[in-house]
Design a protein that fits this description.
Layout: H1 7-11, H2 13-33, E1 35-37, E2 45-46, H3 47-62, H4 73-77, H5 81-93, H6 95-104, E3 107-110, E4 115-117, H7 125-132, H8 135-138, E5 155-159, E6 162-166, E7 168-171, E8 188-191, H9 193-200, H10 211-217, H11 226-229, E9 230-236, H12 238-241, E10 257-263, H13 268-278, H14 281-286, H15 289-301, H16 304-314, H17 316-327, H18 329-334, H19 340-350
Antiparallel strand pairs: 1-2, 1-3, 3-4, 5-6, 7-8, 9-10
Helix pairs in contact: 3-6, 5-6, 5-10, 15-19, 16-17
Length: 351
């Protein structure tokens, strides 16, 4: 529902490179401390060296066919959404390429913990979650609510001197579907546990998408614009017009309204509707419908004309303060809060 990185991140190449360098340094440091063996009786090697050598080997064999395939481990970690989409489409279409990737990035034997995937996210997950909440990174990632549903707060907190994360790191391309992107930075989407572990899991709502469409659906992509192509609408049912009541509160008649999406672009809206359907957004928002209707009641009771009259008597500053006290719009828009999109969509339709 929301893009992971702020606008400035995509425009400031220097800032983006520093961000990627911090991430690569983190993963490299961890990978150099882990020792594995590619075969049961092989000698122990550093995980970093083993991964790097395997990537270079695949690149030599398939680089001409899969043009975006990375040359080394570092490039694998910072593949762009476009590059991930391109490689993933090739992975699904070319059986030989897919089997090679699965074989090379399949199981290895750890020095202590037995057999596990070469790109084992669990060995890096805690450090990656902490990476997203570093002060320098918090400036470019607004981790406040789930990027998929916008109905659950996600954040970090401290216990003693330890910083804990209260969110999941979802893999847009699931680890179980393709092991290659398990540690790729732009394949990560901070999300709530419901969206990640209970609803999405290893699902691919973009299964039938081509490369361009898949890139568009990456929440880490600059052109991810769910908010521009789907708009929430609260629609009265026919039963509402059959009521004889002249004056009523919308929030007291929640069963007389439906929540639905309005498509704002003939082609792209359909893509984001797939995402909304996959995360069951409408049904999950139905539970909170009374809150949205109560907000509409406020808008009916306090239209712009009310604040204009108030300003004429008490002054413009007092009118603005009253407006903020009633609707809390500044707070909601400055920091992404839960249900921000649906409230903004209601505003845009009433205005």
């Amino acid at each position: 529902m929301f893009r992971v990185y702020i606008d400035l991140f995509y425009k400031d190449i220097g800032q983006r490179r520093k961000f990627e360098e911090r991430y690569f340094s983190l993963i490299k440091e961890i990978a150099k401390k882990i020792h594995v063996k590619s075969r049961k009786n092989a000698k122990l090697v550093k995980l970093y060296s083993l991964i790097d050598s395997k990537i270079k080997r695949i690149y030599e064999n398939f680089g001409s066919y899969v043009s975006d395939f990375p040359e080394n481990f570092e490039k694998l970690l910072i593949l762009s959404p476009r590059e991930i989409a391109s490689i993933y489409i090739a992975y699904k279409k070319n059986e030989n390429f897919r089997k090679t990737v699965d074989k090379e990035f399949g199981m290895v034997y750890g020095a202590k913990n037995g057999k596990h995937l070469l790109l084992d996210f669990s060995k890096f997950s805690r450090s990656i979650a902490q990476f997203f909440t570093l002060p320098d990174n918090e400036k470019i990632i607004n981790i406040n609510t789930c990027f998929y549903c916008n109905k659950t707060y996600i954040n970090s907190y401290e216990i003693g001197n330890m910083k804990k994360s209260q969110f999941d790191i979802d893999h847009f391309i699931p680890k179980s579907r393709c092991p290659l992107f398990s540690l790729s930075l732009y394949n990560f989407v901070p999300s709530c546990q419901v969206c990640n572990s209970r609803i999405k899991q290893a699902g691919e709502y973009y299964k039938e998408c081509n490369e361009e469409q898949l890139e568009t659906l990456f929440p880490s992509n600059e052109n991810y614009k769910y908010i521009d192509y789907l708009r929430f609408r609260i629609i009265p049912k026919k039963i509402l017009y059959q009521q004889a009541t002249k004056s009523f509160s919308f929030s007291e008649m929640k069963d007389s309204f439906d929540i639905e999406f309005e498509k704002l672009d003939e082609k792209k809206s359909i893509l984001f509707e797939k995402e909304a359907t996959a995360f069951d957004i409408i049904k999950r928002y139905e539970y909170h419908k009374k809150e949205f209707l109560a907000y509409i009641d406020k808008l009916r009771k306090y239209p712009d004309s009310y604040f204009l009259c108030y300003a004429n008597i008490h002054g413009i500053n007092e009118a603005n303060n009253l407006n903020e006290a009633i609707f809390n719009k500044c707070f909601r828009n400055q920091e992404r809060q839960i249900f921000q999109k649906i409230y903004n969509d209601i505003d845009s339709q009433i205005e």
